[in-house]
């Protein structure tokens, strides 16, 4: 295959990297005055990267001596990542202008672009080194984003915690990679699968330990229990647009990466990694639900909600089938919209002076002071709880059906039973908005862009979303089958 054809397969990452570098130069020369221009151009760069997926980037196959895999599975995940990244950029300028009293610094959208380029490499990696380079590109940009408000103590603390714990997790992952390489003699996923299929004695044991350490690293990146400890503190301390980004795009990238490694590189030992995934899934579902009950901060509650939802997504991975992977992709598609909608509502939580308010108690009586906002948040909460007929129910149904078809009936039963616990804290939010005495009213200043995005997200997760099931189901299944 000629070099130009291979470059066309990585065109989305090229667009993001070149766009980010060009905007970095513009920001260096233009300073604060070009921040809004840089933001909107960054959104156009993400749209351009999405358009680039329509060519060989979604169907070209292996490139660069099998280091990179341009397939439909990676393209599906990238669409979700690019979409979440674009929304996180669009909502940022107004937040920073009202919170810090100054316009958004142009480094923010540039860091988002570089993080997104790293995530693109992650979900298309076909080699352990490509995997690690993409993951670290995403992580290094994310550490800076978490502490983006330098004068805010909570933001600085969030960035420091994320950096320390993220470095530890990267070390664990790298140790697992070194074990897998050492006992297989290769870093290519297909060759690693061959080594797992034929491993015996010490080599088999070494590869098994490598598997465990690698999945521990993945669990941290997707904030699955027991490597979830960073999530509530980072989500609470980071600026809300950054938290919106963390709760959506990197989650998709981490889960998609884990799925690709599990199926492509470790498919012959499905019975071994399935045990890890099942334990992480059940622990995340239960802890995410129980720990959220006592939260008083809406961002911390949504952090535990993300842990809970990752547990449900892992149910589909545990199935280890094409239908299970399709269920994971379907779940991620709906989860991204529900999460973005929820955090868009959090952005509207400001007092009369325009200062952010994050306490759940401040939502009291919201149905009487801001009925449209309360209705939207209620839709997102009911959908996250998986209550029919909202679209979130279909997300859970997809992964549970895949688990039962794979013979994991006890896992599906336990997951369904545990989802009842999670419904409690979602319903508590709805009860606070509709039945408690009104708290001081939020500021009335509105933004048509944010309002339109909230309305669009609410319509997507409403029963109208079921009209999209044929399209989402067909695309997700086709993407999943490229791994098998």
Automatic annotation (TrEMBL):
Its EC number(s): 7.1.1.-
Reaction catalyzed: a quinone + NADH + 5 H(+)(in) = a quinol + NAD(+) + 4 H(+)(out)
Compartment(s) of residence: Cell membrane; Endomembrane system; Membrane
GO annotation, biological process: ATP synthesis coupled electron transport
Domain of life: Bacteria
Keywords tagged on the record: Cell membrane, Membrane, NAD, Oxidoreductase, Quinone, Translocase, Transmembrane, Transmembrane helix, Transport, Ubiquinone
Cellular component terms per the entry's GO annotation: endomembrane system; plasma membrane
Entry annotated with the keyword Manganese: no
Main localization, broad class: membrane
Record membrane topology: Multi-pass membrane protein
The keyword Transmembrane is assigned to this record: yes
Domain NADH:quinone oxidoreductase/Mrp antiporter transmembrane: 125-422
GO terms assigned for molecular function: NADH dehydrogenase (quinone) (non-electrogenic) activity; NADH dehydrogenase (ubiquinone) activity; quinone binding
Protein function: NDH-1 shuttles electrons from NADH, via FMN and iron-sulfur (Fe-S) centers, to quinones in the respiratory chain. The immediate electron acceptor for the enzyme in this species is believed to be ubiquinone. Couples the redox reaction to proton translocation (for every two electrons transferred, four hydrogen ions are translocated across the cytoplasmic membrane), and thus conserves the redox energy in a proton gradient.
The protein's assembly and partners: NDH-1 is composed of 14 different subunits. Subunits NuoA, H, J, K, L, M, N constitute the membrane sector of the complex.
Family, per entry: Belongs to the complex I subunit 2 family.
Protein name, UniProt field: NADH-quinone oxidoreductase subunit N
